[in-house]
Amino acid sequence: FMEPRPPTPSSLPSKLTVNFVLPYAAELSKAEVDMVIVPATTGQMGILPGHVPTIAELKPGLLSVHEGNDVKKYFISSGFAFVHSNSYADILAVEAVPLDRIDPAQVQKGLSEFTQKLNSASTDLDKAEAQIGVDVHSALNSALTG
Amino acid sequence: MSHLKLLSWISSEQPFHNTNHIFVQHHSRLFKSNISHPSNSSNFPTINCTLRDLRQRIDSVTNTQKITEAMKLVSAAKVRRAQEAVVNSRPFSESLIDVLYSINQQAQLDDVDTPLTNIRPVKKVALVVITGERGLCGGFNKFILRKAEARIAELKNLGLDYTVISVGKKGNSYLVKRPWISADRFIKGGGFPTAKDSQVIADDVFSLFVSEEVDKVELLYTKFVSLIKSKPVIHTLLPLSAKGEIRDENGNSVDASEDEFFRLTSKEGKLAVEWDKTTGTSDGILPNMEFEQDPAQILDALMPLYLNNQILRALQESLASELAARMNAMSNATDNAIDLKKSLSNVYNRERQSKITTEILEIVAGAEALL
Q: Is B287 on the interface with A (CB under 8 A)?
């Protein structure tokens, strides 16, 4: 039921069409925006109209959608970003929350909790779990402040 | 009638009301025994003739009808939500399929090896059976369990070993009562399926497959065809292969006859049976697609996500079918209750009227006797 993408136009389109989807809902569907910044594992990546086709894996971090002077920010847990040749971007996130729904106090608490767990972790499994917790919470932290 | 007159003649000395009292009792007893036959000529073999019993029965049927009607309405509302959930999860799985396809194409040129696409000769199969939580849903659980038993028999015939992972209370209790079916794990379902629930199953299945304990994983769930029809299906979950069949050591195909393969480019219809098979991005395989990370890494991360998504979809469809089945069952129950109430009320009214007639006759006869 998703229509096939339109063919590659000859000239650069002015807007980027974004499909931002989650496993249980479509957050943005064919939204025409100016720019999207995604947190790829290799760092923050900005996608503008006319971007070369790319596949990128995303790490937990801040996703921002820029439309004119509007910026919508989401925190995503992880996912993938696919940019196609006709300025279509599909962003798949496993979990995404708009930034204003995150409580900074909770984030701080979680961060200190996991840092503590990391320091007191004995087995490799515990260490790995604690490390993941620390990563996610520090990403949340920087997303809230940055 | 003759010995009634005799009675009144004998007791004519006694005060009027006493005579009447004995006379009425005697008379009504006679009439009662006569009445028992005509009402039994209605369709019920064991109608209890006392008015009070009938009234109690009518009340209980009315209560039952109210409950079944409420359950039907609740299920109808939930079915809609369940369908919406399935539809909402579609863009995600479609985009995932899209990219998986194009990456697969590219990855075949490089030598990428992912554990989940590993095709081995099959010795043991894991069956993930998805059933419901509660009863009162008609034949829903029975159908899927029957299909599971049939599949187990098939596998036994092919000489393969199997293990069952059961999701849902009904399936769990079924398997617990049958210890001869080897069951691996019992997973409790409940409520609306979320990614967390499907993650539990996905982890289990993943570890079983990767550790080579099982060589094939099949998902048995009920596919939602329409509000009044649903179908139990078998879907091969692992190994993820684009096409081709999975064979056992002797090269015989071990797939169920109506298996739905790992479909890279198909979408399944919803309410009506519309199968809009868009051919995906068959033209969109871009040879110059840039990979931010190593394709192997990306595939590694994509596959579990795809697995998780498949399981979530199956859970959602199963829930939708269960709710539709419950809605139908409760609707039938409500109709039956209404019919039963109607016929019971008929019998009750006839009883009541004949009792009134009796009393009138008695009064008349009593009055006549006095004359």
A: no
User: Using 50, 70 and 90 to split pLDDT, how confident is the model at A21?
Assistant: confident
pLDDT of residue B256: 54
Of residues B48 and B184, more confidently modeled: B184
Residue B165's nearest CA partner among B204, B199, B128 is B128
CB contact under 8 A, A92 and B96: yes
Question: Contact, B62 vs B341, CB < 8 A?
Answer: yes
According to DSSP, residue A41 is labeled T
Of the candidates B47, B71, B137, B302, the residue annotated as catalytic is: B137
CA distance B196 to chain A (A): 11
Residue corresponding to tokens 């092919």? B158
* CB interface of B with A, residues 343-362, below 8 Å: none
Q: CB–CB of B319/B192 below 8 Å?
A: yes
Choose the weakest-confidence range: A114-118, B4-8, B80-84, B341-345.
B4-8
| Domain locations in chain B as residue ranges | 3-75+327-364, 92-316
User: Beta A16-22 vs A43-47: how paired, if at all?
Assistant: unpaired
The closest alpha carbon to B123, from B12, B214, B209, belongs to B214
CATH of B92-316, one of 3.30.450.90, 3.40.1380.10, 2.40.50.140, 3.20.20.60: 3.40.1380.10
User: Which residue among A26, A52, A84 sits closest to B88, beta carbon to beta carbon?
Assistant: A26
- Report DSSP state, residue A46: E
Triad B330, B336, B338: Cα angle to 5° = 105
Mind listing the pLDDT tens digit for each residue in B295-341? 777 777 888 888 888 898 899 989 999 999 999 999 999 999 999 99
Query: Does the domain formed by B3-75+327-364 have CATH 2.60.40?
Result: no
Q: Do B293 and A56 make contact, defined as CB atoms within 8 angstroms?
A: yes
pTM above 0.90, yes or no: no
Among candidates B262, B273, B256, B224, which has minimal Cα distance to B240?
B262
Which two structure tokens, joined as six digits, stand for B189? 């379902």
